[in-house]
Specification:
The protein contains 18 helices and eight strands. It has about 400 residues and is α/β, with parallel strands linked by helices. The strands form two sheets. It has a six-stranded mixed β-sheet, with helices on both faces. It has a two-stranded antiparallel ribbon with strand order 1-2. A hairpin with a 6-residue loop joins strand 4 and strand 5. Helix 2 crosses helix 10. The longest helix has 29 residues. It is globular, with a radius of gyration of 24 Å. It starts with 7 loop residues before the first strand and ends with a helix.
């Protein structure tokens, strides 16, 4: 297929969409649906393993919690505030995506983890990327670890955490207007220490695990995701806590694949010769997909409660921003009402919209109604979910 183009239609690249056209011409619409399901299943199974290491007390545990959207003390949260040295590899699963895991690595060059055996003992080759959390000093064992990572040609990132402590110190001195200048000094000092250890031109991200929408945390996430492979980038974006409208926008784009996959499943159910099976399956598919979308946008009760705790606001204040009652009450009964309220115009809209996602779908004459209707209902609702998610974020993080 010659040159690979970068234009996207939903979760298909332009060259992949062209291949779908050929597939439809040769084998029909069923083959296109099968390809959609195949690609979605590959994305669902994709894993992401992020290793986090650094000296005790530098804020590793808080960073692991922040990147998973968890507050201290919540189920599954890493214990914060301890200064004990990590003595084994500790795994922390993402609360919403089981295929995303963070690993707290023990220090290299210790009695239990000698440098010569470290890579093998902690299975360094199994991690996709490494986050090195540094304090005021860059220690010798940090340098040893990075050299081991470089041998494996893996990506690694330097993070200076707890930067909100530095900001508060400036506030106590009535110097908060100097924060940019002082933070540049901290960054330069970190880079200077890295240069002394032989790591030149390295970027250091200044982050706060308590205030993730501020300082370098958003830019850190952007840089990290930009250097991941396509499938891993998708699941990393879905794994991020909702701290900005930009994060929500990226999630919305990815959730199109869930809509297409649901429509493909609906098409398969529509082929059943048993009366009533198709509509029953469509309802189940819609309920499941709506619940996944709600959870991804952080609009479920658990996510709203966790966000309210993080920002110190009553959860009722955030729930009030979810204007659409359906979002808070996704059941078979409410989904049936949505189906009943849809018209043939939904299928027409779906065909038009699908033409932008996968051109061949929009051009199929007489494409199965089950596919287009399921897609149309979900696509028509996605904007409403996004709007509620953005309103919740604005309310949560307003001054």
């Amino acid at each position: 297929m010659g040159n690979t183009k970068s234009t996207y239609y939903g979760f298909f690249k332009e060259n992949e969409a062209e291949e779908l056209g050929s597939l439809y011409s040769e084998m029909g619409f069923e083959a296109v649906v099968s390809k959609i399901k195949e690609k979605n299943e590959a994305l669902e199974k994709e894993t992401l393993s992020i290793a986090v290491t650094g000296e005790s007390g530098t804020g590793k545990s808080a960073l692991v919690n922040a990147m998973r959207g968890l507050n201290p003390g919540e189920p599954g949260a890493a214990e914060e505030g301890t200064t004990e040295q990590t003595m084994k590899v500790t795994r922390y699963k993402h609360p919403k995506l089981e295929t995303v895991c963070f690993y707290d690595l023990p220090g290299i060059g210790t009695l239990n983890f000698p440098a010569r055996d470290y890579a093998k003992m902690v299975n360094l080759n199994t991690y996709d990327l490494f986050i090195i959390v540094i304090g005021n000093r860059f220690l010798e064992h940090d340098a040893l670890l990075i050299r081991e990572i470089q041998k494996m040609k893996k990506q690694f990132y330097f993070v200076r955490s707890k930067i909100d402590f530095e900001f508060n110190n400036l506030k106590h001195q009535n110097r908060e207007n100097d924060w940019q200048k002082e933070f540049d000094k901290i960054r330069d000092d970190c880079i200077r220490n890295l240069n002394k250890s032989g790591f030149s031109s390295q970027e250091v991200f200044l982050v706060s695990s308590r205030f993730i929408k501020d300082f370098d945390f958003p830019r850190f996430c952007d840089i990290l995701e930009s250097q991941l492979s396509e499938n891993k980038r998708y699941i990393f974006q879905l794994s991020l806590p909702n701290f900005s409208a930009d994060v929500v926008r990226k999630k919305k784009a990815i959730l199109h694949r869930k809509i297409l996959a649901a429509a493909a499943a609906s098409f398969v159910a529509g082929a059943s010769p048993i009366p009533g099976v198709s509509i029953a399956c469509d309802i189940a598919i819609l309920v499941k997909t709506f619940l996944e979308i709600r959870k991804s946008f952080g609009l479920d009760d658990d996510s709203l409660g966790s966000l309210a705790l993080k920002v110190g606001k009553p959860v009722e204040v955030l729930k009030a921003e979810v204007k659409n009652p359906f979002i808070s009450d996704i059941t078979e009964t409410s989904v049936i009402r949505v189906i009943a309220g849809s018209t043939a115009a939904v299928a027409v809209m779906a065909a038009e919209e699908a033409a932008h996602l996968i051109p061949i779908v929009g051009s199929v004459v007489g494409a199965p109604v089950s596919f287009l209707t399921t897609y149309g209902i979900l696509r028509n609702s996605l904007d409403k979910f996004e709007q509620s998610a953005v309103r919740v974020i604005i309310k949560a993080f307003e001054a």
